[in-house]
Amino acid sequence: MDYEAVIGLEVHVEMLTKSKMFCACQVVDFTSAKPNSAVCPICAGHPGTLPVLNGKAVEFGLRVAAALKCELNPVSIFSRKNYFYPDLPKGYQITQYEQPLAVNGQIPLLTSAGTKIIRIHRVHLEEDTGKLTHVDENGESYSLVDLNRAGVPLLEIVTEPDFRTGEEVRVYAEFLRALVRYLGVNSGDLEKGVMRIEPNISVRPVGRQKLGTKVEIKNLNSFRALERGVAYEINRQIELLQAGKKVIQETVGWNENTQSTFSQRTKEDAHDYRYFPEPDLPPLIVSRRWMEDVRASLPELPWERQQRYMQNFDLSPSEAWYLVDEKALGKYFEEVQKFSPGIPIRTIFTWVTAELPSLFNISAQPFDPFKVNAKYLADLLGLIASGQINQNTGKTVLAEMFLSGKPAAGIVQQQGLSQISDRDEISRLVTEMLLENAAELKNYQSGKLNVVNFLFGQVMRRTGGKANPQLVRAELEIQLKRAK
Ligand code: ADP
Ligand code: ZN
Ligand code: MG
User: CB of 161 closer than 6 A to ligand 1?
Assistant: First the structure.
């Protein structure tokens, strides 16, 4: 029997506000800040304190929801989700349950199979929990609690179970990460846990409507882990069913070392949480005016930009996405392109996405394409296109531009890098070189044809790489034929 996967995603996004969701504590970097250095009686859950909602967090939530084409709820309600865990100082999490910030959105994925709309079920506001570190040393085991993260604003985005393949899941995760970055809501650092993607996976025989039993995967903290985790879980479930066994509803964790999932807990139902409206917070009312302002202020969205790059520049979906995801690089590419009429897009793409970044790699500098003036790079491409310098000299000039910030033409002139395209001169150079390499010439004549490359290299070396390579090859061929 053939099975298909059915997947729905829950994504938690920490929001880059200055302060926490319901108190004035600063949001700090949890990987580096001193534990429990950003805590107050409110986020520590002391009795008698009162939460006050962070307006910026609402604004961020609205922006994401609007970008996902959701219906924004004019009135949304905060609830208490009760459960006991040491990282949850109040004994409950403030979240939105029955009436979330927004519902019924959509996102247009572009996969190898074409465009597919994934429906967004809901987008709601909540607060993060603290962080536990489990220590096991010298025969003692205990847990450390850090409340710096407790009360940090979170946005939860839940899809309908519309995904069928791991590729769709990956593209969604990439799109969503780019979105929260574009909107300034989140840094997108999966490794730091500031964006957490939790797939719910079930399988069913192809053609059946009814959904199978789902399993949720947690702690997938990279795109790689997400892809592997989803593939692993789909296979595990299909094998169970094929063996006549049943999938049990549970939450599993991803183990990076064994590349497999392990059971964490069998799933609670909503009634286990005893949800009820948060009595300390009034309903959140979002005015029509506010919603309109948010919608009007949305920037070009990542998937819109991808389409524009594909259409205007004739780039493939993955090339276009590369420029979208590396936002600064995309902006830079557009600048260079504007200054380079008549230069093929493909040439610009190669220089901007390969030659330029390699200079940063070599010098181990943080990548900032604008370090090389976009107009200067365009000028450089012009010099190559008109034959004033060759491709390889172009790379030398770029490296020099990277170091000195000088314009291309100046560098070419100062260093005498102009291409040698004079046929007579090239002919003379080839003749000289053959005289000096009589032994190699003999080898060639006795049938070692690949000596040609060596001879070609000799001419290029003599000219410091400045000779026009096509002309050198042609001339070399002529003289070798003659010498036969
Ligand atoms: P829970 O309350 O357990 O979190 P929800 O009903 O809120 O469950 O759904 C969570 C996510 O799981 C949603 O993205 C939803 O689309 C998805 N989902 C629900 N049922 C299934 C299923 N049978 N198979 C795959 N995904 C599912
Ligand atoms: Zn606080
Ligand atoms: Mg869930």
Answer: yes
pLDDT digits 0-9 by tens, 167-177? 999 999 999 99
Q: pLDDT-based confidence at 420, cuts 50/70/90?
A: confident
**Domain assignment of residue 23, yes or no:** yes
Q: Is 118 in the pocket of ligand 1 (CB under 6 A)?
A: no
pLDDT over 70 (residue 270) = no
Inter-residue contact 301 to 90 (CB < 8 Å): no
Domain boundary among 386, 414, 442: 414
User: Could you give the number of structural domains in the chain?
Assistant: 3
Q: Which of 137-141, 256-260, 277-281 has the highest mean pLDDT?
A: 277-281
Q: For residues 104 and 132, what is the distance between their CA atoms, to the nearest angstrom?
A: 35
Rounded to the nearest angstrom, the distance between the alpha carbon of 85 and the centre of ligand 1 is 23
Mutate to test the pocket of ligand 1, among 200, 218, 230, 241 (most ligand atoms within 8 A of CB): 200
249 alpha carbon, closest ligand: 1
